Protein 1
Amino acid sequence: PVLVVDYGAQYAQLIARRVREANVYSEIVPHTFTTEQLLAKNPAAIILSGGPSSVYAEGAPSVGADLFEAGVPVFGICYGFQAMANALGGKVAQTGLREYGATEATTVGGGARSILEGTPESQNTWMSHGDSVHEAPAGFEVLATTAGAPVAAFANEEKALYGVQWHPEVKHSTNGQQVLENFLFKGARLEPNWTTGNIVEEQVERIRQQIGDSKVICGLSGGVDSAVAAALVQRAVGDQLTCVFVDHGLLREGEAEQVERDFVAATGVNLYVANEQERFLNALAGVSDPETKRKIIGREFIRAFEEAERAIIAQAAAEGEKIKFLVQGTLYPDVVESGGGEGAANIKSHHNVGGLPEDLQFELVEPLRALFKDEVRAVGAQLGLPQEIVGRQPFPGPGLGIRIVGEVTKERLDLLRKADAIARAELTAAGLDNEVWQMPVVLLADVRSVGVQGDGRTYGHPIVLRPVSSEDAMTADWSRLPYELLARISNRITNEVDGVNRVVLDVTSKPPGTIEWE
Ligand code: XMP
């Protein structure tokens, strides 16, 4: 793999994704790894990421000079660039001057033949640094400069060692991907062989080896991760797999059918459906506190899943079989964020609907453990899953249960489902699905306002539209949807959904607002 050494400023994941976008496999490792530990992973190349520190700060992470003698190509970025300069005897100056944001970098010397090949002589780069490199280490050539950084990029071609002061992994660095790919393909001479087709083949092979001829069980939530994980396992072991779909009645219009009909048609999977709509409605009756709703939904989900599980285990036992494995849709960011540990203890922290049972009698199968979300979607498409499933926007595990502000009832769910379906259909028709991260549609069931429809006054509920743009749901901004589109959604909802006489738009960023209303 290409190893991305994480100096702790959230850039490492982005770098790893960019490397994979170039069809090269990459993994993130902590900066506490020694040179020996790094080399033990047999890296094809190493990238040192950005980080928050000054190389002179107390306890600042450093890099061993021996790493640069190991014959492995290395690319230092921002902090990694400075740590590299420092380790190799260059001069890093604490000027007290900061360069932050868009900065123009000018190619000098042989830069245009090195990792800056194919980029303009003067290019936009994204900077965030205090210290700057004033002298390149011996044997290195300066490739670029900026106003604040006399040495903004350098190279030692003979040893395949490179570095840039800016952040090539962020989109604000206009030629960033080109620079990164120059390092990978020209500097390190790697082959672009990490493709969706290869990922599928490799995972299918691994799953077969892990599962052998045992039986395996899998939960489907309607979301992307569980669907793609199940489809991979199905591709690998076919009928040995049984999927469980707990229909809690809190999904949006058409989503249960996507699982029960479209997913099954695309994969041929054995599906066990637990129709539990009544159970969830009964458990939620009279409850309006959001956290209580979440707890109830999580608890009932686990119970329903376990009941389904027992039925499947019993059926297998009747045929003399035992279920040994459980599939989980854990993704690479979950693995990295929980410390990168190995093994079964690493349960997906944010699992849809409050997590699976803890008393794991099963060994876990986690075919998405090495993948980022966009790779999961690509794998799903490669496996022939419907676009509605692989392109699905984030949707909370407790579903519409936390999009009704107030008590959840059958009537309110039906009403919200209608309004939500209209909003989603119009967003799609306007071609704006990709502009919007997600668009919760919320029913304010405890609020009523006066309206007028036809000859009469109405006393109905408002529907809130909450379209947001975001990178990772940690922060978000409200999406500036065209007024025409908002007008169409509003007209249709107030005309077509009985009981709704107002549509309002949420124009709050996160923070201070959250994405969901509950
Ligand atoms: P908030 O509302 O906290 O949401 O800004 C951030 C992201 O998480 C989703 N979300 C949930 N997902 N169970 C989930 O699986 C939950 O209880 C839950 N609450 C919020 C939300 O849709 C957004 O993507």
Protein 2
Amino acid sequence: STQLVWFRQDLRTKDHPALRAAAECGPVLGLYVLDDETPGKWKPGGASRWWLHHSLAALADELEALGSALILRRGRSAEVVRKVASEVKAGGIHANRHYEPWWREAECEKGDFVILHDGDVLHEPSDIRSGTNKPFKIYGPYYRALHEHFPPPAPLPAPRLSRPDKLPPSDRLESWKLLPTSPDWAGGFAEWEPGEKGAARRLRHFVDHAGDYAGKRDLPAVDSTSRLSPHLHHGEITPRQVWHALGRRGGDKFHRELAWRDFSRHIILSDPELGERSQRPLGLKTRSGKAADADFRAWTRGQTGYPLVDAGMRQLWQSGWMHNRARLVTASFLIKHLLIDWWRGEEWFWDCLVDADYANNSQNWQWVAGTGFDSQPFYRIMAPLTQSEKFDAADYIRRWVPELARLSDADIHDPWGRGAAPAGYAKPLIGHREGRERALDAFAKRGK
Ligand code: FAD
């Protein structure tokens, strides 16, 4: 009988346990449901929708080439999956396990109706427990426990597929209007190649350069990290494939970064509301109202007067991605220098990132805000000007903040402080010392 494979954030054919299991039982039909209801406010944001459009087109081609087909439908996942299953008289519904609370809810709505397979992580995160059989809250011990399971299983090849004789109706991808129309802000996304082939190409490129990873991963001007995050988020490649392709090349440092992705999934299993609620509320009085809104807008547009912050925010808007060092600095600037609630920044990232990922995004925002169980203390305040110099961000700034492109290496990190700011470059929203003192003062008065 026909086997239905429900694709979600696993838009690939290789190393796909659900697809393989389905292929062993009969003809296979792939199904993707565009569901803007079940995830509530966490439905895919603008940049993710751009990615999704291209990734689904690529997946349809891959499935076709293997002998199957992809059906597109829209609506509430649990209902639509059941409906299509009954239309095709499916003998089984297969899916890979995901950890976002809304997916877990959809999987068990009215009883477990899908057969779940593990395979989008290095090791099933619910399986990693402390000595007293509790979930971990801190990364270090989690990584040590995960390390016991290395190497992860070898990736599975794509299965050979057959499809049912008659296909149910499918939406046209174009009718979903996932791409921006006017204004088309996605011009700068050309550097990305969504889909399984694009992911494999990106991985091959990284494998050749991975020797530089540990030494250069913190330098935003250098292309030394994998840039696999959007491919990993949409499941066009698995962490296991990445792990095995690299071998020892990225070193322990790379394994540790990749494992943060597993860890954040482990965290949302025990704290599904991670994206909406501080794990340890600090009781800080944050800013709101007109002046704070104006500052927030300037931050989103990359007009804070701090070159590294502005470069990061403009890279995000123009390319749908931001270097990790810049993510740390821009997030810290919003939360501490501007004293604005972390979840406003988190929501902006959600809409703008091609790798917007509920677990990773929430976990990292809470880390910077000092509200996560594992986080940097609030009173540790990153100095954006010093960070810029320390991590050699001059060329990064030149690329993303063109009005500063002609400044020297000595002036570019702090053009206002050096009296070198060109006309037209934003004035700092707040001085570093002043911002730092305001944040520390709010911290000292917390809960009062
Ligand atoms: P590499 O350095 O090449 O790492 C390889 C992979 O490991 C990444 O693709 C990612 O899947 C994983 N990884 C690396 N660092 C982290 C981390 N700190 N936390 C979780 N996983 C990690 N990452 C996302 O995938 N989606 C997000 O929405 C997201 N939001 C973030 C928000 C903030 C405020 C911060 C500080 C970080 C955020 N990150 C997020 C984590 C990290 O910045 C990105 O994963 C990384 O920059 C992606 O680039 P890369 O693929 O070149 O990473």
